[in-house]
Design a protein that fits this description.
The structure is a homodimer.
Chain A lengths: L2 H5 L10 H10 L1 E5 L4 E3 L7 E7 L2 E6 L5 E7 L4 E2 L12 E4 L3 E7 H10 L1 H27 L2 H14 L6 E2 L5 H8 L3 H13 L3 E4 L2 E4 L2 H8 L3
Antiparallel strand pairs in A: 1-8, 2-7, 3-6, 3-8, 4-5, 4-7, 9-11, 10-11
Chain lengths: ~220, ~220
């Protein structure tokens, strides 16, 4: 698919005149990443804006000892590295979680179009606002919630967006899930075993099947 | 001071034509809060943008059990609740940390001016970008750093902005400082005592005096 066809369907560019979308598409580069491949790290200088064409990307921070905290998960159509407009370094790193195609273009091009088109700036502001809210939810979760609460909240939130309301299929390992929840893999296993023993859920390989939604909802409130 | 005089000196409105600043000032309301007073909570519906005129404001999340995590600290000239442009509820609560004067106006007025003035949207985007970066730093700190590392990073960062490079005077209690670091007051006391015993710093009431900057820098790297 050519870059213009991709960009015109991206919500961020809704309402943007065709010539501006074409200008952006003209500077866009498409790249392919396989599962587990790094897209960029927080130590590389790069002023670019990215979009997921297909696949999935995680935005994360890593400690010098190799521990990781996943901050965002992005799927098709979603932009990332919006802070490139103001900064030379991304505040976090990005990795493909499965076979992924991304589209990128230089931040200066975006800045150029954005200064002429308030609708794009406004859309960017809304996306940034949503990201800020999500990161505040994560801060709350990390500092004020225990692992079972975090897992319950994550499952309830994830299942709301699925067709099959009982089965959560992350498409990645429990080790990746632990990085989202800010838990060690061992703690996550222990919590999953406990909830399985209580009949709240069962684990089917990578998938988690919820049997008792009321108990899960209760857990999200820390009780 | 009248609202126009306040707004024209706020960096967010830099480059904005006088008539727009006047329009915003015309809708602005000034309010006074004493130390410890709640400005708004994350459960109240309110679509307004706020500025600190003088004093200091903390943005925080609280758990049902009354535990708190401070997310941002804002001083004179700084805007808060920028997500009001897209949401009816603030993602976090706000409290005055000392005697504080704030200026607020309805989010619709801001939206109205912002849609006409790309420079304002662009400034808002830069502020939002900075906030997002700060919240990612906090996420990293909460999930990947121990309390001594968090304290060291906080002190190094705070002292960089001060006239007296050895003395950190927060202007609030160690209990408030613990909420910023995501620590219990007991853990913070223990860490401060340990660092004092090692000659890295000393505690003078609410103030913290740094004796060994190299050791503090070392600590920020977790070593």
């Amino acid at each position: 698919m050519d870059s213009y066809d991709i960009l015109k369907h991206i919500p961020l560019f809704e309402g943007l005149p065709r010539n501006h979308v074409e200008a952006l598409a003209g500077c866009a580069v498409q790249k392919h990443y396989s599962s587990g491949q790094t897209i960029f790290t927080d130590t590389q200088e790069h002023r670019a804006l990215y979009f997921v064409v297909w696949g999935r990307v995680k935005i994360y921070k890593a400690s010098p000892e190799g521990r990781e905290q996943t901050i965002f998960l992005f799927g098709p159509g979603e932009p990332f590295c919006l802070t490139a407009l103001s900064d030379e370094f991304s505040p976090a790193s990005a990795m493909a979680l499965e076979d992924t195609r991304i589209l990128m273009f230089p931040a200066e091009i975006l800045e150029d179009v954005a200064r002429k088109e308030p609708s794009l700036l406004f859309n960017m502001l809304l996306v940034m606002s949503r990201r800020l809210k999500e990161s505040l939810v994560l801060i709350e979760s990390l500092s004020l919630k225990e692992i079972p609460e975090r897992l319950a909240a994550f499952l309830v939130h994830s299942l709301k967006q699925k067709k099959e309301p009982d089965l959560y299929d992350p498409g990645f390992s429990h080790r990746e899930l632990a990085k989202i929840l800010g838990a060690t893999p061992e703690t996550l296993s222990r919590v999953l075993r406990k909830l399985a023993a209580e009949g709240v859920l069962s684990v089917e390989g990578r998938k988690i099947r919820v049997h008792d939604h009321a108990a899960l909802e209760e857990l999200t409130r820390g009780s």
